[in-house]
Specification:
single chain, mainly alpha, two-stranded antiparallel sheet, 55% helix, 3% strand, signal, repeat, endoplasmic reticulum, calcium ion binding
């Protein structure tokens, strides 16, 4: 097994692995912060730059002149304006910010793409993925490494079909991204819940009871005394996870647990950027309005923050 295939199988196999006795497994998918910087426009716009561009891309603008920053920002605006009506709405800004924040995911897919697109047609079929990932292992019913490749392949095929919106068993780059990172796509949330429940539901009754819930996070391994965090998780299950108090979590309760409705940072930032840049207060932005407030969206070598604050207050 080469390194790439080993890492891929390892990532799939982690769903079946148990935590160390005192190590808490976290299955909850929280919406990440847009930046690790403080959001305080009275001091600087660094948070907004990271949010709008992604932290790595934001650094590249800091090396540009104001003129270069404005030119590149104008090109970005053309991409954000999805319906090409000449305006950037709050919704379009939100979509752009979410995309910028997931650049590491798209980079990960890009790095793997050529390995699976065997005929180089710009698409990845299920057959291509299956043959590359499992082709050499399915003939061995009892592999030495202990992986159950057939079971893993069944799960992969089910997830691939869900990611494949048009049902042709051929994935575009966006569909393949949804396949590899289903937690990032709304239409894939059901498969995330289903796979999680299958991992934890040891008696296969379609529910997660208290002991299965705890057993997924903690193994007694001969220890009589549970850590305090395990006791807390027992209380969490009874008080918050099991909403209908029937002693187990069903699909909806599991979904509420692992895919919580967190604060939407991208939506809040999009609203903030529109509010600060919308000179005529029509609820949407022109390219001119955005470029005029370029210092809010992007950085540059010579941005005078004092001058920027004056213009900031004028609006």
């Amino acid at each position: 097994m080469d390194l790439r295939q080993f890492l891929l199988c390892l990532s799939l196999y982690t769903a079946f692995a148990l935590s160390k006795p005192t190590e808490k497994k976290d299955r909850v998918h929280h919406e990440p912060q847009l930046s690790d910087k403080v959001h305080n426009d009275a001091q600087n716009f660094d948070y907004d730059h990271d949010a709008f561009l992604g932290a790595e891309e934001a650094k590249t603008f800091d090396q540009l002149t104001p003129e270069e920053s404005k030119e590149r920002l104008g090109m970005i605006v053309d991409k954000i304006d999805a319906d090409k009506d000449g305006f950037v709405t709050e919704g379009e800004l939100k979509s752009w910010i979410k995309h910028a924040q997931k650049k590491y995911i798209y980079d990960n897919v890009e790095n793997q793409w050529h390995e699976f697109d065997m005929n180089q047609d710009g698409l990845i079929s299920w057959d291509e993925y299956r043959n590359v990932t499992y082709g050499t292992y399915l003939d061995d019913p009892d592999p030495d490494d202990g992986f159950n490749y057939k079971q893993m392949m069944v799960r992969d095929e089910r997830r691939f079909k869900m990611a494949d919106k048009d049902g042709d068993l051929i994935a575009t780059k966006e569909e393949f991204t949804a396949f590899l990172h289903p937690e990032e796509y709304d239409y894939m949330k059901d498969i995330v819940v289903q796979e999680t429940m299958e991992d934890i539901d040891k008696n296969a009754d379609g529910f997660i009871d208290l002991e299965e819930y705890i057993g997924d996070m903690y193994s007694h391994d001969g220890n009589a005394d549970e850590p305090e965090w395990v006791k807390t998780e027992r209380e969490q299950f009874v008080e918050f996870r099991d909403k209908n108090r029937d002693g187990k979590m069903d699909k909806e309760e599991t979904k509420d647990w692992i895919l919580p409705s967190d604060y939407d940072h991208a939506e809040a930032e999009a609203r903030h950027l529109v509010y600060e840049s919308d000179q005529n207060k029509d609820g949407k932005l022109t390219k001119e309005e955005i470029v005029d407030k370029y210092d809010l969206f992007v950085g540059s070598q010579a941005t005078d923050f004092g001058e920027a604050l004056v213009r900031h207050d004028e609006f």
